[in-house]
Each structure stands twice: as C-alpha cells, then as structure tokens.
Write a structure and sequence with these properties.
Oligomer: heterodimer
Largest interface: A-B, 47 and 32 residues
Largest sheet of chain B: none
Strand content of chain A: under 5%
Order of helices and strands of chain A: HHHHHHHHHHHHHHHHHHHHH
Distance between the termini of chain A: 48 Å
Number of strands of chain A: 0
C-alpha cells in the first residue's frame, strides 16, 4: 500500500506529472492537437504513477507491443487519413507536387544537424545515423511517419520524437508566419494565382491512388506500408462504391486508433528515459526541422519564379509541409491579411496534400537508405 | 571527414533528390491521366 507513496519521493515522478498535465492543459485550454496531446498526456500520468499496473506488463504494455512495436497503429491511422484527404486540388494542379518535395528540406537539414551534434564529445543520445534520421523525420510534419521511422531506428527516442512532432504540427500557425515573412516581400505575398477551372473525373481519382502505390512501392518498397495504407484509404473514398467503409475509416477507425496510439505513446514517457538532455535536444531540433521545411518550400517557390512569367505566390511553398490542413489555412489567412481579395486556398491545399505524399516518400527513402 | 557524417550527407542529398524524382514521376502520371482520360465522367 505504502510503496506508491514512497515512490513519490522520486523527483522524476513529479516532473513527469508536470509534463503530462502540461500536455493535457495544452490540449484542453489551447486546443493544440487535442485528439493526440490529451491521450498522450494522460498516458504519461498512467505510466509515471509509481508501481503503476498500467505498465510493467499492464494493458499499456500490451498495446505498445501490439500497436507500436509492430507499427500497426500508424498504418491504421494512415488508412483514416487517406479516406479524409481530397486529392482533387492536387490533381487539378499537379505542379504543386514539387512544393511538397521541396518542403521536406527540414528533414535532411535536421538529420545532418543531429548527426553533427551527436559527434560532440559528451552528447550521448544520438550515437549514429539511425538516431539522427529518426530525429530528422520530425520534419516530415507527419505524426504516423515519425512514429513509424522512430520505432524502427530509435525506439528509445520514440516518446520525445512523437511529442515534438505533434506539438510542432499544432504550432504551425506560430512557426510558419515569421519564417515566411522573413523570406518574402509584401509584394510577393500579394501575388494572386488563378484557380484551375477544369474538373477531375472519377476515373482519374480512382486510378491515382492505385498508380501511386504501385510506382512508389516499386521504387521504394520500404514505403509500401505507409503509402499503401494512405492510398487504400483514399481509394475507399474515391471509388464511390464503399461509402460505408470510407466513413468508418474517416471516423470510427481514426478515432479508435488515435485514442490507442495517443495513450500508448504517453505510456512510453517514463521519467528515467524522457527526462534527459537528449529530449531537450530533440525538442530544439524538431523546431529547426519545421523552420527549415518552411524555408525550403518558400525558397524553392522563389527559385521557380525566376524562370516563370506567371509568378507563384511563394507562400504556397510553405504549404508543402505535411501538416494538413493547418498549413494551407495559415497561408490563406496570411494572403488575406495582405490583400483581402487574394484567394490561394486551392493551390495551398494542393501543395499541402502533396506534402503528405512527399513526407511518406521521404520516410520510405530514409528507411531504405539508412543502415 | 567523419565517415558517418559523410554517409549522412550522401544519404540526405540522395533522398532529397529522389523525392523530387518520385514526385516528378507522379507529376507525369497525373498529366498523362488528365490528357488521355475524359475530364468528365459520362455518368456524371
């Protein structure tokens, strides 16, 4: 009976209670990614109660082995995400794909930075390329991909990487605007873009997820689980004949797996592992990844503009990160602040869903190339 | 240069280029689909 109370003498228990409560506060009060931060925060509390029956062979350990270690939860989440995504704006305007590619820059910049920091004498948390890659993938701005790669490359760093990824995704409205303003002029931010008027047929919408899965799978087989589940969800949506399955993937499946994923990730936030200088380092590097993703996308758009007659609003480049649909909303809001008559939302959404595809390809390539 | 850092640089650069290549293929695919298939479904 008393051992729980005695266990409270460890300062790390109190510190992790603070972390868990802070995550719950961010979810409830600030509404930052509440669907994930709230379960993560509560899972953190469950895991750090001294001698908790939820861990150490308890139900959270069962969930961890059955959903995280074998990568099942992120895959199931992707089926739901795929069912929610409308690739229409991208199919109408396929040039946006390249902004999705450009905005993955933060992944590789951060991976290199993590690698260099890990070589500094005294820094022990990032011993090699695998750990650096797992940290860099925070720049995918895509929770399931981060979890998937971290589970393979650095399971010990899974909790801080996941918390950083989801926290920064929710902070996109805070992170992106200053970076964009620093890299663009007001005139550039006021550039209008014509909306594509042609329609996309159902045939194209059905062929697209199948073809993308086959092409991506053949080029990078390691990405099949991620891209395949995303595109399977999208096919359920676009086929037009599986509405019930599509709705289930979008709602029940997504909600159920999100609950399990969140609380299970929270349960991996044990004080001994989480309270380390490496966690702090990951939090800083994660922010750098998001900043350089944004910069990569914006600068790529400016580069393209050097060769184009009809200029692109360079803010569109920032939407190439995968934080969907947050980033597109942020950029549309910024465009309207500069010029109330400027509507670039369709282009922004196109770049944003391109970022979703690009981040998964990035994850697959990293899994294939890093040994 | 530290061999691990050199490997990281090589993998980062290659991956970034390959993302453009893969998405470039998707770009070609979409263009091809839009060009060869009707813009509207007959049933619509």
């Amino acid at each position: 009976m008393l051992r729980g109370i005695v266990g409270m003498s460890d300062w790390r228990v109190w510190a992790m209670f603070g972390v868990g409560l802070a995550l719950i506060w961010l979810a409830v009060k600030k509404e930052y990614e509440p669907n994930l931060l709230l379960p993560i925060g509560f899972g953190c509390l469950l895991a750090n109660i001294p001698f908790s029956s939820a861990v150490g062979g308890g139900f959270l350990d069962v969930l961890f082995k059955g959903g995280i270690t074998n990568e099942l939860f992120p895959i199931l989440i992707f089926i739901g995400v795929g069912a929610m995504i409308d690739f229409g704006p991208l199919l109408q305007n396929p040039e946006m794909l390249f902004f999705g590619a450009a905005a993955q820059f933060g992944i590789f910049f951060t991976m290199m930075l993590a690698l260099l920091v890990g070589r500094i004498p005294g820094v022990t948390g990032i011993p090699g390329l695998r750990e650096a890659a797992a940290i860099g993938i925070i720049g995918a701005a895509d929770g399931p991909t981060s979890i998937y790669v971290a589970t393979r490359f650095a399971p010990g760093l899974l909790a801080p990487i996941t918390v950083a990824a989801y926290s920064y995704m929710s902070l996109v409205p805070v992170i992106q605007p200053p970076v964009i303003r620093a890299l663009t002029t007001r005139e550039e931010r006021m550039i209008h873009m014509e909306n594509p008027e042609h329609e996309v047929s159902r045939t194209v919408r059905v062929i697209f997820p199948i073809a993308v899965t086959l092409i991506a799978g053949i080029i990078a087989p390691m990405s099949v689980a991620l891209i395949g589940s995303l595109m399977f969800g999208n096919l359920l949506r676009e086929s037009g004949v599986t509405e019930r399955l599509s709705k289930t993937a979008q709602n029940e499946l997504s909600s159920l797996v999100t609950i399990l994923l969140g609380i299970t990730i929270g349960s991996s936030m044990g004080g001994k592992q989480f309270l380390s200088p490496t966690t702090l380092l990951i939090i800083v590097l994660g922010l750098i990844a998001f900043v350089f993703d944004t910069a990569g996308g914006v600068l790529f758009a400016k580069l393209i503009n050097l060769f184009r007659k009809r200029k692109i609003n360079p803010m569109i480049g920032a939407c190439g990160i995968s934080a969907f649909p947050m980033s597109a909303r942020v950029i549309q809001k910024m465009a309207q602040q500069e010029d109330g008559s400027n509507f670039i939302i369709m282009h922004a959404v196109g770049a944003n869903v391109a970022g979703q595809i690009a981040s998964i390809i990035a994850g697959g390539l990293i899994l294939a190339l890093v040994r | 240069m530290d061999p691990v850092v050199a490997a990281g640089l090589r993998i980062s650069g290659l991956s970034y280029v390959l993302i453009f290549v893969v998405l470039g293929i998707f770009y070609g695919l979409i263009k091809l689909l839009l060009r060869t298939l009707p813009r509207r479904d007959d049933s619509a």
